[in-house]
Amino acid sequence: MLRKKIHFLCSLPRSGNTVFGALLNSTNKMLATPNSLTPDIVYQLYLLKNHELFINFPNHRSLDYLISEALQLYYRDWNKEVILDRGPWGVRDNLLLSKKINKNCKYIILYRPLLECLASMVKISKPDNVEEYCNFLMQDNEIFGKNLKSIINLINSKNKFKIIHYKKLTSNPIKELNSVLKYLNIKSNIKKIKLKDFNINNIKYNDSYLGVDMHKIDLDIRPAKEYSKIDIESYLSKKIINKYKEIDSLLQNKIYGKRNTLSN
Fold this sequence. Notes:
This protein is an alpha/beta fold. It is 46% helix and 12% strand.
């Protein structure tokens, strides 16, 4: 069985994850995952250390081995050596567990401003009550809140990481792809993109239960002359903008404040 080199992607929803993954997968050099179950799988294994049977017979070595090999088993039939696993791996416990999975792992943050991501989610979901919807998404254990915490904790940690900006990805996708491959030590020089739908082992996103096509991508992607920024005020109320703009500013300050210390 081909042993995988597993690295980790941290990002907010609606920050370009699906197109970023499809672009990486189109290079035929690696596989980027959808929003993954694996952080929960590994964390639930870790929580077994609180089980009375484990406390009664604390076999750390065997359980730690199972934790370290969980992703190797999960991705055993994925036919590429390098896997970029997407999830809230920057959350404190997940960050510690990621080192058990691959002590030499690398981290990537796909960054788009928080308010833009919220506005994009509202645009596609069309909730009846925008304020309630945004506040729900931003709760600590919900998809925005948890991934936001993950990004901030990773930035504050001593781990090296690379930031890919959504703005740059949409403006010059080939340049950004090559920078990611270089960062992951994959020898390649992508000059042309032939984008395909996000599909791994003939498995696609099933968005029918969501009621919206959350993962549709433009297959005719080409470099944009100018970044098309979403009109936040068309989708978010002033109350929501004012409530979360300080968090957005904090995140941007952390992102750009770390700019000169990042591993390229």
